[in-house]
Write a structure and sequence with these properties.
single chain; mainly alpha; 9 helices
Length: 218
Amino acid sequence: MFKIEVKEHGSFLDVVKNYRVWVFSFIYFLWITGVYSFGLWMPSLMKQLSNSGIGIVGWLSAVPFILAAICMYYNSVWSDSVGENRVLFVSVPLMIGGLALAIQHFVEGGMVFNMILLIIAGIGIYSAFGPWWAWAMSFFPSNQAGTANGLINTCGNIGGIVGPIIVGAVAQNSDLTDGFYVLGFFLMAASILAVLFGAVLKSKSGIIGVSEGSEAKG
């Protein structure tokens, strides 16, 4: 049985020197760039697409998040039940979400068409959260997990600043769809990087995640 060889020392410096934490941080940064922007600009985009009042806009904005919460639960359950290749339960939703945002920009459609794509994007963006932390933390021993988690969160949440700024800067003539599609490329980049990094980790350790019968040594 293969196990990930990770130093058992739990100091902050040991975590900082672990290359895995920086790759996970960059993946999370790309992902969170899309997450915060999606949530922040969603009401404005819904108002632009529907030309409705605040009440209708509020209900329309809530739909992607409600369905995303449901799918996040089932994606996590599915990931646990399959027990292999947990990275796929992260990368596939992110790719789907990224493609949905890109399609919304390049393919013209009405309110219903755009709403469907935004729902798909929301499901993709949020449903990966459950498997993400189970996958990422499986590569750190228990005495490094807390520090690694905090560092990944800190670096990733910088995307919460970058993303909304990018959407506002790219949007032309106040057309938010011109800015939203850029988020799709961030999500697709996160998906591709996750798959590549998962392949590298598998080649080095013989596993992709904790679900394949191994745990980080610690």
